[in-house]
Design a protein that fits this description.
The complex is a heterodimer. By secondary structure, chain A is mainly alpha-helical. Chain A is built from 14 helices and no strands. Classes of the chains: A mainly alpha, B mainly alpha.
């Protein structure tokens, strides 16, 4: 390949040459980095920052009472109910992800190298498969005529179908399924980084397996678990697709209400005010996430 | 921890496998369902047939949606790679102030809930009459792919030895020549991987598409609308096609990313 480095110059010679590059020559890349960053910076400014700021400005009324849309949110019981419901579902989903994610990551950690790669590949794969596909499958599994209900009926456990879908339960199952990798992958990475000699030391001193787990393993991986939980919580707050499909319109969450306010009712100002609340919540929790994540790395 | 009792180990295995099943079963179950001959979603399928694949490939609306998806994904991922990889270079090699803030700004679309990005773009594009146009949709998707390109390319550029660039420059290459003949060829595997990532992100995107696309339908948007209304077994066939497509492209991206990091390291001893 013509472009590849094949000058035959030993690396250390190149390294020695580097400082001798004339200032003017280096000047070709100067002001360093700015020309390369500029197009993307302008692009994101015009198509992300400005639209976001404009939307936030919609939530402020130019009249006497600039915060009247926020006041409407606080007074409108529907809005508060949806907000409360969203936070409730986000908490339950986060809890479910922890209860499933920690054992899964632990099991992955305890596997031999080859099976570890295989399981890791499966988890990463699910992460990349369309959310729609993953959500859709739950209709097949949990629907009235789905696999679970058919099995229950043929086993004689129930006469009629159990309503697993189009309620809170369905939404939480679907959301947990989609978001689980967001918790498992960083948690597993944190476990891999854990110094196994600590565990061996404890063992050689006669600590029981349970004691080693609860006194060493769990405390050392807890920050990663906390960071992953916050991430899952944030993602659930803004979740749209799974609640819309598995909630069947009966489990309203913030994102779905925004869709309604924009695409059906046109009430842009209210939508803008709700978005601001959601954005502030998200950024607050993201700041918490970064703080915890930083701690978990030490 | 190295030698847990066999009972504990057995228990951990059972729990681990069950959770893995919970994670993977939804994907695995769609595939046999898509070959079912039944009108309803019954598992296991009573007999096999390709009728749902036929109903996809013979429906002009699904094919049109597939064309739109491909076109938008190609255009937006290409834009994201052009903007994003240049930006990553500037961020990694740059010396200007405020790089961290700029980097955070590039990554912000990952953190801001997509529904908010979608809503802001909806109101913004409506002002310029770009709502419901291909252009608006492509720009929206580019915003979502850009952070991933910046992330991936930053890693790749950071692991590419800057001294190789300096050597080329010191041996008389102009900056453009160095870029074209040294940097790009060496970063090619990572560039392709980033391009595939951005492509998949656009191809799977639903929320921004629902808000911005107007009358245009992409595969995920049409899937979403059908799923909210009723259960249509054609979707099992589409889902299976999407699973296959994702496995192939992600496998390719992973292979390229690995090659990229290897060639970047190899650059050291050549």
């Amino acid at each position: 390949m013509a472009g590849r480095i094949s000058s035959g110059l030993p690396m250390h010679v190149m390294a020695d040459l580097a400082p001798t590059i004339p200032r003017a020559r280096r000047g070709l890349t100067a002001p360093a980095g700015l020309p390369q960053v500029a197009p993307a910076a302008v692009f994101i400014l015009l198509l992300f920052n400005v639209p976001l700021l404009l939307m936030l400005s919609w939530s402020i009324d130019p009249g006497d009472n600039p915060f009247k849309y926020y006041a409407a949110l606080a007074q409108g019981s529907v809005y508060m109910k949806v907000l409360g419901n969203t936070i409730y579902i986000a908490l339950l989903t986060t809890f479910a992800c922890c209860m499933l994610g920690y054992p899964l990551a632990y099991w992955m950690w305890s596997l031999r190298a080859r099976s570890q790669i295989l399981v890791l590949a499966l988890v990463v794969l699910t992460f990349w498969i369309s959310i729609l596909v993953r959500t859709y499958s739950w209709i097949v599994i949990l629907g009235n005529d789905g696999i679970v209900n058919r099995s229950l009926r043929s086993l004689g456990v129930t006469e009629t179908s159990v309503a697993f879908l189009y309620n809170q339960f369905g939404v939480i199952v679907g959301t947990t399924n989609v978001l689980l990798p967001f918790l498992v992958l960083p948690l597993f990475a944190a476990m891999l980084k854990l110094d196994r000699r600590l565990l061996q030391a404890a063992e050689s001193m006669g600590a029981s397996q349970a004691r080693i787990f609860f006194r060493i393993f769990l405390p050392l991986t807890f920050p990663a678990l906390a960071a992953g939980s916050i991430l899952v919580f944030i993602l659930t707050l803004g979740f749209f697709i799974t609640p819309a499909i598995l909630g069947g319109g009966r489990v309203p969450m913030i994102a779905n209400m925004l869709d309604l306010l924009i695409n059906r009712m046109p009430r842009w100002e209210n939508a803008a005010a709700i978005s601001t609340v959601l954005l502030v919540l998200t950024l607050l929790f993201y700041a918490a996430y970064q703080w915890v994540e930083k701690k978990s790395r030490i | 921890m190295e030698n847990p009792s066999s009972l504990t180990r057995w228990l951990i295995t059972v729990v681990g496998v069950s959770i893995l099943l919970f994670l993977c079963l939804p994907i695995a179950i769609v595939i046999p369902m898509s070959f079912s001959s039944a009108d309803t979603l019954a598992f296991p399928p009573p007999s096999l047939s390709l009728r749902w694949y036929r109903s996809f490939f013979e429906d002009p609306r699904w094919l049109e949606a597939a064309r739109t998806s491909l076109f938008v994904a190609l255009a937006s991922s290409t834009l994201a790679v052009l903007f994003g990889s240049a930006a990553a270079y500037g961020l990694v090699r740059g010396t200007f102030g405020g790089r961290r803030i700029l980097e955070a700004n590039f990554l912000a679309p990952i953190i801001v809930p997509q529904v908010i990005t979608a809503l802001a773009l909806y109101m913004y594009l409506a002002k310029f009459g770009l709502l419901g146009t291909f252009g608006g949709l492509i720009l929206g998707h580019t915003i979502l792919g850009l952070p991933y390109v910046v992330l991936l390319m930053s890693v790749a550029i950071r692991s590419f030895d800057v001294r190789i660039e300096q050597a080329a420059l010191s041996l008389g290459a102009s900056w453009q020549e160095m870029f074209r003949r040294v940097l790009i060829p060496n970063l090619m595997p990572s560039l392709l991987a980033a391009w595939i990532f951005a492509f998949i992100i656009s191809f799977d995107e639903v929320i921004v598409t629902i808000f911005l696309s107007g009358a245009h339908e992409t595969i995920p948007k049409k899937m979403f609308n059908e799923l909210v209304l009723r259960v249509n077994p054609t979707i099992t066939a589409i889902a299976t096609l999407l699973i296959g497509f994702t496995i192939i492209t992600m496998g390719l991206a992973a292979w390229l990313a690995k090659r990229g990091s290897v060639s970047a390291i190899r650059g050291l001893d050549h």
